[in-house]
Write a structure and sequence with these properties.
Blueprint lengths: L6 H7 L6 E6 L2 E6 L2 H10 L4 E3 L1 H4 L2 H4 L8 H11 L5 H20 L6 E3 H17 L6 H23 L10 H23 L7 H7 L10 H14 L2 H16 L1 H15 L13 H13 L5 E5 L3 E3 L2 E3 L4 E4 L1 H5 L41 H18 E5 L7 E2 L5 E2 L3 E6 L8
Parallel strand pairs: 2-8
Antiparallel strand pairs: 1-2, 3-5, 4-12, 5-8, 6-7, 9-12, 10-11
Helix pairs in contact: 6-7, 6-16, 7-12, 8-9, 9-11, 12-14, 12-16, 13-14
Length: 425
């Protein structure tokens, strides 16, 4: 068993060896922490003793100085500059756009149709993120280039995170496609920035007008770095979570029934708004349970000074790793950990506290777009579930494929109408 050939089985086995386990990945020693207390120590309590580790370091070829891979003073500056654009008060403005596009997608489906749900959701999330970033629509050619390049870059980033650095220099088709797509995407984003004439409320407008404590704006290159990070973070991961949610609901009809009843009661056939999201507790349970079951597989930090963890003193430069995916399925913490049970979120289970549930990480590097992502996921689920019941396509076996958030290999689903009054006329 190895991390490369069967990463889930390998990572799941580590807690049986102890709270902190030294593993050699090639000639590269990594210490895996396997308890929520130690993960919290690394991410939050002793966060000042760590910097981003090798996985994110390998991704700088794409994100450069963006907040995704920035550290230290640069990260603090960029987080302060970007935070207002992702504040909860801004989410209501974005929800209008989310509603519009989710409703257009669901409204185009037909009863009995078998559709590739994962593909529809990836297209939806890309449409939402480009629309919220650029209220003045970029040229069609620019949007087409983003759609063309982004999947290639996402795949390349994942491969470079998992493989040794020597892989980057191999003259293989994957590397050539990745390099070409990265150059194309960066060029088109710069072009969009230069020609932007937004309404003052889109993400790009907010980032362009942001100033640090010395009154300095972001440079054009820094804006480009941040927009690429937002695009990648706001498409694949959120699309995968919504896809998994409907896959899980198809296997648990009673959960789908309860979700539909809640949406009918609260929304009564209208589109969800920002205030409605707090009135859909079972929908929130479904989102949390999906995030628990389908979390990021691996994350890392690097010690910037000697640090003591679980009685072990780790020298400067030590790589420390942990798996949110495995932590959230740990049988020591969760009853029936591999089962989809949204009702578990109705209880005061300590294993579901903020220190043990980390789908968006925690501490200084917690995902800045969590509120945006949760709203996007909730709006999409509520919009689809208000109209349709989705069933697994006969004969299809769904399995997880390695990605930042493991994705379904394919998710064909059959559409069944729920609300005839919401069907297209």
């Amino acid at each position: 068993m190895s991390l490369l050939h069967d990463p889930v089985a390998f990572l799941t086995s580590l807690h049986r060896q102890g709270d902190i386990v030294r593993v050699h990945i090639g000639a590269w020693p990594v210490y895996f922490v396997t308890t929520p207390e130690l993960v919290w120590q690394v991410l939050v309590t002793d966060a000042g003793d760590f910097e981003l580790g090798r996985i994110l370091e390998r991704q700088r070829v794409v994100f450069r100085n963006g907040i995704v891979t920035a550290d230290g003073d640069l990260h603090r500056r960029q987080r302060l500059l970007m935070q207002p654009a992702f504040h909860r008060s801004r989410i209501e403005h974005y929800i209008t756009t989310m509603n519009e596009h989710a409703n257009a997608m669901a409204g185009a489906w037909r009863p009995g149709q078998c559709l590739a749900l994962d593909e529809h959701l990836h297209e939806l999330m890309l449409t939402i993120i480009t629309s919220t970033m650029f209220s003045a629509d970029p040229a069609a050619a620019a949007v087409a280039e983003v759609r063309r390049s982004l999947p290639l870059i996402a795949k390349g980033v994942m491969m470079r995170s998992a493989l040794p650095p020597v892989f980057d220099r191999l003259p293989i088709p994957l590397n050539r496609r990745f390099t070409a797509a990265s150059k194309r995407l960066r060029a088109i984003i710069i072009e969009i920035i230069d020609n932007h004439g937004g309404d003052g409320h889109d993400l790009l407008s907010l980032l362009r007008t942001a100033r640090d404590d010395q009154g300095r704006p972001m440079s054009r290159e820094q804006l480009c770095d941040e927009l690429i990070g937002i695009m990648l973070g706001g498409t694949e991961a959120t699309a995968n979570i919504v896809a998994w949610a409907f896959h899980e609901l198809a296997q648990a009809p009673h959960c789908a029934d309860r979700l539909g009843d809640e949406i009918d009661t609260v929304l009564g056939g209208r589109q969800p708004g920002g205030k409605d999201l707090t009135r859909l507790p079972y929908t929130a349970n479904i989102i949390n349970e999906t995030l628990r079951l389908h979390s990021p597989l691996l994350n890392m930090r690097r010690a910037t000074q000697p640090v003591r963890i679980a009685g072990v003193t780790l020298p400067t430069g030590t790589e420390v790793a942990f798996s949110p995916y495995v932590l959230h399925r740990d049988p020591r913490l969760h009853d029936q950990p591999d089962r989809f049970v949204p009702e578990r979120w109705d209880t005061e289970d300590p294993a579901l506290s903020h220190t043990m549930f980390l789908p968006f990480a925690a501490g200084p590097h917690k995902c800045i777009g969590e509120s945006f992502a949760r709203a996007e996921i909730a709006i999409t689920i509520a919009t689809i579930a208000s109209r349709w019941r989705l069933h697994a396509a006969p004969g299809n076996q769904v399995r997880e494929v390695l990605a930042s958030v493991p994705r379904p290999n394919a998710l064909p689903m059959v559409v069944q109408q729920r609300r005839t009054d919401l069907l297209p006329r």
